Design the sequence.
């Protein structure tokens, strides 16, 4: 895979709205200053791409404009990285404007850059994976850099630092604390810390050999299920199938699958349905193991465990549960295509 150059102090980072356009709405205006401040404190210079702040309606109506921002970020030699504003549910609509554009594909290959986001950004990550670029399933601008607390969550901040020269992501440890997601997003909550809890479980090996390895591939389970079924948008399956966005079974052989659930907190029945979509594709027959993120606010924490075992239906396939990434807080970064060894509840990068 193409590995982008690491970030450095002074690196310019493009902020793009590839899915939901909430960053440009008046309700988010105070968050922009906060996110900019946090990024600058880390030595990064955010650059809002031309359409990133045009608001929900414009972003919804103009997937071509979203795609043009991403292309412009790759074309700008002064930009070292690209961070997504937030997720959403229809970034798939940008795909025809990107994959069918040979100039965009050439830019990705000739100017590989750090690309980071999570949730619906799964679709963008899988597109880049298909194009051969390593990207990073990790924090977004609005939800993490612009967190309302007095600072970014330390575990999350430290994970971002691994993208810089002189730092490496060598191992992922369980976070000592986990934090509830916010219920009130008004400006009055600025400076109010998230409710925290001591981590009581750590990474849990639900089944299988305690030692397994492979290259990482995956994302948000709801996003993957939607692109495979078209349940959220019927045209999503059509578009994603057209471009082969989700890898075929033979492409997944020997990989380590990572999946996590979103803020919708799918019921155990819905969780099973989503896992079944992967099973139908032969995913669990191909991969060497499965890493599962901490459930959102630990809702259905215990209920998901038997569902995973029942649907996967292979006691020999390792399942490592309760890992800090995706929609849970705090979160680490998972690089697509990176080799990992999962050994005795540890995740070590090779």
Sequence:
């Amino acid at each position: 895979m193409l590995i982008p150059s690491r970030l450095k102090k002074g690196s310019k980072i493009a902020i793009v709205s590839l899915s939901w356009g909430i960053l440009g709405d008046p309700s988010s205006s105070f968050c922009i200053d906060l996110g900019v401040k946090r990024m600058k404190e880390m030595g990064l210079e955010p650059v809002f791409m031309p359409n990133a702040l045009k608001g929900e309606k414009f972003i919804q109506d103009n997937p071509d404009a979203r795609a043009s921002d991403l292309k412009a970020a790759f074309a700008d030699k002064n930009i070292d990285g690209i961070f997504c504003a937030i997720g959403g549910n229809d970034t798939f609509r940008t795909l025809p404007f990107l994959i069918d554009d040979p100039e965009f594909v050439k830019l990705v290959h000739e100017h590989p850059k750090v690309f980071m986001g999570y949730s619906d950004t799964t679709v963008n990550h899988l597109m880049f994976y298909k194009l051969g670029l390593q990207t990073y399933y990790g924090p977004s601008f609005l939800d993490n850099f612009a967190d309302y607390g007095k600072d970014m969550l330390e575990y999350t901040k430290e994970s971002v630092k691994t993208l810089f020269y002189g730092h490496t992501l060598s191992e992922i440890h369980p976070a000592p604390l986990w934090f509830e997601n916010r219920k009130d997003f008004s400006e009055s909550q600025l400076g109010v810390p998230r409710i925290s809890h001591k981590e009581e479980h750590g990474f849990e090996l639900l089944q299988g050999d305690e030692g397994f390895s492979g290259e990482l591939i995956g994302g948000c389970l709801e996003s993957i299920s939607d692109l495979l079924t078209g349940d959220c948008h019927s045209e999503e399956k059509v578009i994603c199938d057209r471009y082969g966005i989700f890898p075929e079974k033979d492409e997944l052989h020997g990989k380590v699958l990572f999946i996590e659930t979103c803020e919708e907190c799918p019921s155990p029945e819905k969780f099973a349905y989503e896992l079944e979509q992967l099973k139908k594709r032969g995913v669990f027959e191909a991969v060497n193991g499965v890493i599962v993120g901490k459930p959102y606010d630990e809702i259905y924490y215990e209920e998901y465990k038997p569902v995973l075992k029942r649907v996967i239906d292979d006691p020999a396939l390792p399942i490592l549960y309760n890992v800090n990434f995706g929609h849970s807080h705090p979160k680490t970064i998972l690089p697509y295509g990176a080799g990992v060894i999962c050994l005795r509840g540890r995740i070590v990068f090779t």
In short: The two ends are 15 Å apart (CA to CA). The first strand starts at residue 12 and ends at 16. DSSP finds 13 helices and 16 strands in the chain.
